[in-house]
Design goal:
The chain is α+β, with helices and mostly antiparallel strands and 65 residues long. It is built from three helices and three strands, in the order βααββα. The two termini are 18 Å apart.
Length: 65
């Protein structure tokens, strides 16, 4: 996974964004973050995810990859 910190102007996703876009539960997103599968950043009191880190996390299954 990418280990660079987010740039100042970079648009970051919330956990709720990921829940809505990928139809998974908040518990699942929290587990991915806790298990180190999805890199997240603390921003104030919230948690944010870089779109690049999410894209890296999502991988195709089988087929032409």
């Amino acid at each position: 996974m990418s280990h660079s910190t987010p740039d100042a102007g970079e648009v970051l996703l919330t956990k709720a964004d990921i829940v809505r876009r990928h139809q998974v539960s908040l518990r699942t997103v929290n587990r991915w973050i806790h298990d180190g599968k999805l890199r997240a950043y603390r921003v104030g009191n919230g948690v944010r995810i870089r779109p690049a880190d999410l894209a890296e996390f999502i991988t195709p299954i089988g087929g032409d990859s």
